[in-house]
Design a protein that fits this description.
Layout: H1 2-10, E1 21-24, H2 31-42, E2 47-51, E3 60-66, E4 69-75, E5 81-85, E6 100-102, E7 105-107, E8 114-116, E9 121-123, H3 127-130, E10 143-144, E11 146-149, E12 152-155, H4 164-168, H5 171-178, E13 183-193, H6 199-202, H7 210-213, E14 228-232, E15 235-241, H8 258-261, E16 262-268, E17 272-276, E18 281-290, E19 293-303, H9 310-339, E20 345-348, H10 353-366
Antiparallel strand pairs: 1-20, 2-12, 3-4, 3-6, 4-5, 5-10, 7-8, 8-9, 11-12, 13-19, 14-15, 15-16, 16-17, 17-18, 18-19
Keywords: 2Fe-2S, Iron, Iron-sulfur, Metal-binding, Oxidoreductase
GO molecular function, one term: 2 iron, 2 sulfur cluster binding
Protein name: Rieske (2Fe-2S) domain-containing protein
Length: 367
Amino acid sequence: MLEEVLGLKQGNQLFLDEQVTQNPVNEYLDAERFEREQQHLFRTLPSILAHASEIAEPNSFLRRTTQGLPLLILRGDDGEARVFLNVCRHRGTRLVDDRSGCKKRHSCPYHAWTWNSRGQFVAAPHFEAGFPGTDPTELGLKQLPSIERHGFIWLMPQDHEIDLSTFLGELDAELAWLDGANLSHHQTDEQHRQCNWKLLPEGGLEAYHFRIAHRNTIAKLFNDNLSSYQCLGPHIRSILPRASIVELAEQERSSWNIRDHSNVLYTVFPTSMFLVQSDHVIWIRVEPVGPEKTELRLMTLKPKETDKPSDYWDANHELTIKTLNEDFDLAESMQSGMRSGANESLRFGRFEGALSKFNETIRQHLV
């Protein structure tokens, strides 16, 4: 991968697809299209909910919402991570309001029905008198299929059997290389954006915009319009070489380390991205809410064992958020432009081929 982009840099060439493509504007606006995406992508494919370090200790928990479902992620006293609907089995009240914490038991704020950290029903006031003949073993929290893999908690489809390793394919080994289980949550930024969800991952799939959109942040650290990509099944690996890549020409190939001279962006289809930097990883997760509304979570993951002070990681997180906000602000601008009717289609140049592949993969899943 490094050899390819180094050769492009030395030859003053660009990584080019065969042709220019167009993508219909309606795919970013249409409510019926959005519902099809909900049905065929978000409800039927695995998705990442949390990093394991967010619930590192037994009895720790997280509250999340995805696909309109209120979720409770619990690390049981047995160390196993499980995902449940955050709903009381008595009258349907939301069980947990706190965003995160560590508790052995969770009691409903309405009538104090109580469950343990494995989601098992424990007790309720006057239970025997009020609910004779009710089997308490059938009152566990409603559990959803999930897997802990590569340091992340994955929500698996409820109604579609799918093997996570098969879904990841070649990406499985790449995520193992990231060693996510030995990363730790440092800081999270949450945002609400007024744009279609697809515009947000699209912003990271090309370097064409770096010199202009990021002129006040990271442009000087990267080459102008130089990147490459490879499809790994439905997923995409993008290589974004830094300006320092020219130094490799003077080094033994055996000493090359891709993270020293390039960012690697993994687009984990359809809604997660890992921006792999020299010493840490940024996890970006989009949560489609409506055709023109998207929630974002951006998390800095640092090594569990690090000698660098918190200020160092804070500065890296702040620069990343500032840079990505430049992209996200433009995404909202594009959404407004699409509503105007000025264009029927968006144009993807030959150096924006990864955007075409991303959208083509979506269409294939909607058939």
